[in-house]
Amino acid sequence: MIANFMLSMEIETIQDRTLCVLLNWELRFNIIMGIARGLLYLHRDSRLKIIHRDLKTSNVLLDEEMNPKISDFGLARILGGQQTEANTQRVVGTYGYMAPEYAMDGDFSTKSDVFSFGVVVLEILSGKRNAAFYKSDQNFSLSAYAWRLWKEEKVLDLMDRALCETCDANEFVRCVNVGLLCVQENQWDRPTMSNVVFMLESDTASLPTPKKPAFAASRSLFNTASSSSKADSYVDLTNTLEQGR
Question: What residue ranges define each of the domains in the chain, with the CATH number in brackets?
Answer without folding.
Answer: 2-235 (1.10.510.10)
